[in-house]
Amino acid sequence: MSEVESKRVVLPKNAKPSHYDLEFSPDLFPAEGSVPTFEGSATIHVKLLEATNTIVLNAKELNVTSGSICSSDDFCVRAEISLDTKTQTVTLTVPDSLNPGDYKIDASFSGVLNDKMMGFYRSEYKDPLDSSKKKFMAVTQFEPTDARMAFPCFDEPNIKATFSVTMNAPESYTCLSNMPIIKEEAAEGKKKVVFDKTPIMSTYLLAFVVAELDFIKGETKDGVEFRVYTEKGRSELGQFALDCGMKVLPFFANFFAIAYPLPKMDMIAIPDFAAGAMENWGLVTYRETALLLDPNQSSAQAKARVAEVVAHELAHQWFGNLVTMDWWTHLWLNEGFATWAADLAVDTLFPEWKVWVQFVFTTLSQALHLDALHSSHAIEVEINDATEVNEIFDAISYLKGASVIRMLANYLTVDVFKQGLITYLKEFSYSNAATGDLWQHLETASGKPIKDLMSNWTKQVGYPVLEISDLENGEVQVSQGRFLSNGTEDASKPTWIVPIGVLNAGSSESYYELLDGTSGLLSGVNTNSSEWTKLNAYQSGIFRVKYSDSMASKLITAIGKSELGPEDRLSLLSDNFALARASRLSTAKALEVLKAFNQETEYTCILSICACLTELSRLFAQKTDSEEYRGFKRLAEQLLGPIGKAVGWDAKPGESHIQSLLRYGACFILHGWRLCKPNMRPVSDLH
C-alpha cells in the first residue's frame, strides 16, 4: 500500500464481497403523521482473506435489526451489531474467529424513504393528469457514497460485486432496476419483482425505481432494447431523448470497440433529482429538464442540452461503469472524459450544431475563468475520506477536466487517443483503474511521454500565459508563467509542458511544438513573413497567448478577412480581454481586436462580442453624455447592427439550429442599442 493510500479512510481489507442478494419493500403511503419507510434484507457473499471475528460494512441512517455470518456449509452464527454514525459503518462481531474462506452475511434492516434526494428516497410530484392530486415514487441516488443509506454494503468504488435485486411494490406500479425483470408474482394488490443479476460493478451504480410510469421504446441497430420512462401522460416528451440515445449508444460501442454489455437501457425522468443526471448502469436517472422536451416549443438550446446530457451519461456506461476509477481522487477523469466524449458524439450526430465551437465558448472559457482565480485548485486532488467528494469536486474539475482531455486528444489526434482508450478499457473491463493507467496506455499508443506531459496539468493549480517576443533574426521566443486574473504573479513560478498548436496562413492543418521550461524558441515560426501565425490553434490548449505587436497586427487583419476559424477568433477576443482585465495588455489594444469583428455572423462569436460590450458598458455607466460613451455606442452599432437586423425577433421557416441560437443570444439595435440576455428579453437601455 502506498503512503497516499494509507491515509485513506476505508473499510478493513479482511473481507471481499462477490455478490449481493437484495430485497426491498418500500412503503410509499404511510399512515398519517408517519414518515415513509422501507424494509430490506441482504445476503452478501464474501471471501474472508484473513482470520477474523469482525466484518465491517458501510451503513448510514439504517436500522440494522439482525445479522449473521454463515459458512459455506450453511452453519450460521448470529452476530452482534454495532453502528457508528461518525464513520458510517456497521460492525458484525461473532464470538469466535472465522478462518479465511467463503461466507455469507445475512442482514435485515429498515430505513426512511427520505426527502434528501440521496440514498433510497421518495419523490413527490403533482399528477400530470390531475394537478390536485399528489403522486409519489421511490427512487435511488447512490453516487458518491449513499448506497449505504439503502443497504449495508462495501460502499467503495474499487470493491465491486454482482447484484440481484427483488422489489415488493403496489401491483399497479412499475419497478425498474439495472437489469431486466426475470420473474414477477402478484398477490393481494402487491407484486414481487425479481431482476436479473448485474455484471460486476460498484455499489454507487446500483439503482431501482418504484413508480407509476409511462414509457416509449425502440431498439438500437445493435439490438439493445431502449426505453424512456416518464410520469403518466408525458411519455411523448421523451421522444427526442430516445432518438438521441438510440444513436449515441451504438456510436460509443463502435468508438470503444466494445459492445454495450447489458441487454437493455432505460432512461427515466425524476421530478425531484439533485444532479443533472446519474449514469446507473442500464438505468440512467435524469432531472426532468435534462431529458424531456416538447419538440414544437423547446428552444434549440434545450435540444442541445438534452442531447449533451444523454450522451454524457451513455459515455459513462463504458468509461466509469465498465471501467471504474480506483478511488474518488480520479473522479475528475471519469467526469472530464464523459463531458468530452459527449461533445464528440453530439458533434458526429449533429455536425450543424458546431459543438466544438460552443465548447470553446462555454466549457473552456469557464474553465479558464475559474482556474485563473487564486481560489482555484488542481483537478486531481487526493481525497482521503470519501465523504469529502462533494466538497472537492466542482465546476473546475468538470470544466477543466474536459478541457484537459480535449487538449490531449487533439495533441495526439483523436484516432491515436482512441487506440489508447480501447486498450485501456479492454484491460480494465469490470475492474478499476487510476489516471496513471490511462496515461500508460496512451503512451503505448502514441510513443509520447504522456505521464510527464499531463502531470502538471492535472496535479497543479492554474494554467500558463505564453508571452511572445520577436527576435531580430525573425525567430520567435515564447516564455510562460501562471496567468492570474488579478494580474499578480505566482511566487512559486510553476511551469507546464505546453503542447502549442501552430496554424499558419494558407494552411488547413496545424502542427505542434512543445514548450518544456520557462522559455524557448518556436522553430517553425518566423515573424519576417508577411503572413499571420496563430498559436493555440483551434483553442485546443488550456492557456492564453500574449502576442508581440507584429504578430497581433497580422491576426487582427486575418479576423477582418475571415481567414481564421471561429474557435481561433473566439480565443483572440477572449485572451486579449482577459489580458487587459489583468492589466497585462492595454485596453486600447484589446479594443483593436474587438473592432475587427464588424462582419461577424458566427453565433458564439456574437455572444462573445456581447459579453465584451457588456463589460465595457460598465465603464461608461456614469458618463452617458460623454463623447467616450457616444463612441462606445457607435462601436456597438457597428458590430451588432447587421446581425440584429438579419435575424429579427421572429423565427423563419426552415432556419437552421445555429440561426435559432443567433436569435436566442444576439444583441439588437433598438432605440440606440440593447443587450439581450439568453431569455431573449431586452434587459436595459445603456444610456
Q: How would you concisely characterize the structure shown here?
A:
It is built from 16 helices and 31 strands.
Question: Would you kindly provide a written description of the structure presented here, covering whatever features stand out?
Answer:
The longest helix has 21 residues. The termini are far apart. The protein is globular, with a radius of gyration of 28 Å. Helix 12 runs antiparallel to helix 13. Helices cover 31% and strands 30% of the residues. The C terminus is likely disordered. It has 16 helices and 31 strands. With 687 residues, the chain is α+β, with helices and mostly antiparallel strands. Strand 19 and strand 20 form a beta hairpin. The strands form nine sheets. An eight-stranded mixed beta sheet has the order 5-4-8-2-1-11-14-13, with no helix packed on it. Strands 16-17-18-20-19 form a five-stranded mixed beta sheet, covered by helices on one side. Strands 27-24-23-29 form a four-stranded mixed beta sheet.
